[in-house]
Amino acid sequence: QEPLVVSGGGSVQAGGSLTLSCSASRYAYNGYCMSWFRQAPGKEREGGAAIIGGGGTYYADSVKGRFTISLDNAKNTVFLQMNSLKPDDTAMYYCAAAGAVSVSFCRRSVDGQGYGYNYWGQGTQVTVSS
User: Fold this and answer.
1) What are the strands, taking DSSP E only, across the chain?
2) Helical segments of 1-130, H only
3) Burial code of 50-69, b = ≥16 C-beta within 10 A, e = fewer?
4) 119-120/91-98 β-pairing
């Protein structure tokens, strides 16, 4: 089982931007659904953004228009560009991969808690101050 290695994160003021990276040497192709989830203290994990081979991207309403998920096949890396950050975006962010899943699963997963995802990277903290 090859790991998902997450980098990025940190602290930023409201309105700022951050980029998260997830190195996924084997999951960035072959139809895997790659997603970013987050979990704030005292809250359930929630979906944020997902991308599946072929370029379909999906977003939870809470991040739509502010976050962008992308896949660099050459680098086998999934990125999450986060703009116009709000204090409510403060959470631990996780990268996850789900193999042999449908496009509809990937699309629906941004509204879920990550069930059905086979592989998870370590979390990275994002803190947005007001």
Assistant:
1) 5-8, 10-13, 18-23, 33-39, 46-52, 56-59, 67-72, 77-82, 91-98, 119-120, 124-129
2) 103-109
3) bbbbeeebbbbebbeeebbb
4) antiparallel
Helix (H, G, I), strand (E, B) or coil at 108: helix
Cα 14 from chain centre: 20
pLDDT tens-place string over residues 3-61: 799 999 999 999 999 999 999 776 555 678 999 999 999 999 999 999 997 769 999 99
Give the pair of three-digit tokens for residue 90.
């403060």
32 neighbors 105 (Cβ within 8 angstroms): no
* Sheet with strand 67-72: strands edge to edge: 5-8, 18-23, 77-82, 67-72
Planar angle of CA 26, 28, 77, nearest 5 degrees: 100
Cβ atoms of 68 and 51 within 8 Å: the answer is no
Residues 71 and 22: beta-carbon distance below 8 Å: no
Q: Which amino acid is at 71?
A: L
The number of angstroms, rounded, from the C-alpha of 43 to the middle of its chain's C-alpha atoms is 17
